């Protein structure tokens, strides 16, 4: 049985609080609710897709906010949107590069979540049996979602999906207190991580 540098649940919780600093994650600091409901989880995944793109994080935040303000705050609502409307909102949100492709990816992502999980990422978690490695696999099977997107998403949802904690991407590790970062680096990697 593998041992972990972070042995107890309480140790994990303390480390997560230290990594989070104020106790609020990135998304919450910028006005995105982090709750265990379909709309919030979908918005966090969409924000993660946008944050993983090259460019300024503020552009990703503005774009995610613009999508939400347009009423596309759930997989079902975004799936019903027209491609041309997604392109318009993405451009208005400040997205650069291949906006047409991004509009396709977001539409495909919404439709896939709707078809596989009836628009609810909690169903993905249930299908995975609350197994972090399986959750990662199922998330990376979604259109536009790679390992970086999964890291961003799970970093924001780890307070809700406790089985994945602690999660820290490169940015969080760089900002973490030295003891917390060392503990995460020593921690054995799970399959799929």
Summarize the structure in words.
The chain has helices at residues 9-20, 26-29, 38-51, 57-69, 75-80, 83-92, 99-117, 121-127, 132-140, 147-157, 170-175, 178-186. It has a domain at 30-155: Endonuclease III, domain 1 (Orthogonal Bundle), CATH 1.10.340.30. The longest helix is centred in the middle third of the chain and has 19 residues, at 99-117. The two termini are 18 Å apart. Helix 3 packs antiparallel against helix 4 and helix 3 (38-51) packs across helix 10. Helices cover 62% and strands 0% of the residues. The protein contains twelve helices and no strands. With 193 residues, it is an all-alpha fold.
Notable traits:
single chain; 193 residues; mainly alpha; Endonuclease III, domain 1; 12 helices
Topology, element by element:
Layout: H1 9-20, H2 26-29, H3 38-51, H4 57-69, H5 75-80, H6 83-92, H7 99-117, H8 121-127, H9 132-140, H10 147-157, H11 170-175, H12 178-186
The assigned structural class equals mainly alpha
Instruction: Tally the beta strands.
Output: 0
Give the helix level as a range of percent.
55-70%
Helices and strands, in order, run as HHHHHHHHHHHH
Mean pLDDT: 82
How far apart are the termini? 18 Å
What is the makeup of the main sheet? none
* Molecular shape: globular
CATH superfamily of the domain at 30-155: Hypothetical protein, domain 2
**Percentage of residues in DSSP E strands:** under 5%
Uncertain spans? 1-6, 188-193
CATH C-level name of the domain at 30-155: Mainly Alpha
CATH topology heading of the domain at 30-155: Endonuclease III, domain 1
Alpha-carbon Rg, integer:
17 Å
List the total number of helices: 12
- Please name the CATH architecture of the domain at 30-155: Orthogonal Bundle
């Amino acid at each position: 049985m593998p041992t972990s540098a972070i042995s107890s649940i309480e140790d994990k919780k303390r480390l997560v609080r230290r990594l989070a600093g104020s106790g609020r994650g990135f998304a919450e600091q910028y006005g995105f609710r982090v709750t265990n409901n379909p709309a919030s989880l979908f918005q966090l995944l969409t924000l993660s897709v946008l944050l993983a793109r090259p460019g300024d994080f503020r552009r990703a935040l503005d774009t995610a906010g613009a999508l939400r303000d347009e009423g596309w705050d759930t997989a079902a609502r975004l799936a019903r949107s027209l491609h041309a409307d997604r392109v318009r909102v993405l451009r208005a949100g400040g997205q650069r590069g291949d906006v047409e492709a991004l509009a396709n990816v977001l539409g495909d992502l919404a439709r896939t979540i709707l078809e596989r999980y009836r628009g609810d990422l909690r169903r993905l978690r249930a299908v995975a049996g609350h197994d972090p490695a399986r959750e990662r696999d199922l998330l990376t099977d979604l259109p536009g979602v790679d390992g970086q997107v999964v890291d961003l998403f799970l970093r924001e949802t780890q307070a809700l999906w406790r089985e994945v904690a602690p999660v820290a991407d490169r940015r969080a590790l760089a900002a973490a207190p030295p003891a917390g970062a060392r503990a995460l680096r020593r921690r054995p990697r799970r399959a799929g991580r």
